[in-house]
Specification:
heterodimer; A: Glycerol-3-phosphate (1)-acyltransferase; 48% helix; B: mainly alpha
């Protein structure tokens, strides 16, 4: 019975995923081409990044429902409008889609494979997503600082790779060096329940509840005296502690 | 400089610059996996070590082979001996 349920979920999800993506890309492409005629580049990018968020929201909230449900908790209420550096733990290839829960103009720091995906990779490139492994730190820093200055929030998965055992791996420090340079607020984001959506090495989605906890922002006045090394471990410990609690209360 | 002094000063760099607990500073500790440094942190480490030991190691090819804290301590010991000759 469970196998039938999983097969049904995947059939439904992927069918609607491809149809919706096709419609969204054609619609989005037309909108961008149309607006390029009379809007400045900055406004088009802003529009595109919000459109990606709306697209992601449909992918995570509507298409897999009721097999996969989202439980999002924001513990950072009454905070400013950003921009923020969202720092997330990483368990599944679907994680970038879950970032659609954040109501901001966002650029994600992504691995190379994202940019090699058909259609999605092209859109990510046009939207200015950052392929961190394809550029030296100085170039990454310059691009990221410019985005933050423009009011764009950044999403990063500083483990650099998906966790295979639910633990939170060591963090890379690049994004924390950017925080120290720009004084941007850091928002730790904890994601659990997503490890089978899909599991590493598979494309199959499994039913379940994905929990996302947005922790209160760590502001410059709290971390300004930290080194990049101390800051990355401080944020990693915050996330690891919350993730452990979330896993235990499944 | 004795091996004991090199170990002591190297550990001081990790404690002062990275706030790593001394109990974690074992010779077999992997600098990346166990102590949590990444390539950018290593740049900071090299700067701190150069300052601490008054040596230049930034362009030394042997740095690439260092994996553990013990490797690093032995490397600095060799460098100090080469300078002393």
């Amino acid at each position: 019975m469970r196998t039938i349920k999983i097969a049904f979920l995947n059939f439904l999800f992927y069918t609607f995923f491809f149809i919706f993506s096709l419609v969204a890309f054609v619609g989005l492409g037309s909108l961008i081409l149309f607006s390029a005629a009379f809007l400045p580049k900055r406004k088009i990018l802003k529009l595109l990044r919000h459109a990606i968020r709306w697209y992601g929201a449909v992918i995570i909230r509507i298409l897999p429902f009721p097999f996969i449900r989202l439980d999002y908790k924001n513990y950072g209420l009454n905070e400013s409008s950003g921009p923020y550096l969202f720092i997330c733990n990483h368990r599944a290839a679907s994680d970038p889609f879950f970032m659609a829960v954040f109501p901001y103009e966002i650029v994600q720091v992504a691995n190379i494979w994202i940019f090699r995906l058909p259609a999605l990779g092209v859109i990510a490139k046009i939207a200015g997503y950052l392929s961190v492994r394809e550029m030296p730190y100085e170039q990454f820093a310059a691009k990221t600082c410019k985005l933050i200055a423009q009011g764009v929030s950044i999403v990063a998965f500083p483990e650099g790779t998906r966790s295979r055992d639910k633990s939170v791996g060591q963090f890379h420090s690049a994004i924390f060096r950017i925080a120290l340079e720009t004084h941007a607020s850091i928002v730790p984001v904890c994601i659990t329940g997503n490890e089978n959506m899909p599991p590493i090495g598979s494309g199959f989605l499994y039913p379940g509840v994905v929990k996302i906890h947005r922790l209160p922002a760590l502001t410059w006045d709290k971390y300004g005296t930290f080194s990049a090394f101390k800051l990355k471990n401080y944020v990693r410990d915050m996330i690891a502690k919350e993730v452990l609690t979330m896993d235990q209360t499944e | 400089m004795t091996e004991h002094e090199v170990i002591k000063l190297t550990n001081e760099v990790f404690i002062d610059s990275f706030e790593i607990e001394s109990s974690k500073l074992l010779p077999e500790a992997n600098i990346f996996n166990d102590l949590g440094l990444d390539s950018l942190d290593v740049v900071d480490l090299v700067v701190a070590l150069q300052k601490k030991f008054a040596v230049t190691i930034r362009d030394d090819e042997r740095v690439r082979n260092i994996r553990t804290l013990g490797d690093l301590q032995q490397f600095i010991l060799i460098i100090k001996k080469e300078i002393g000759k």
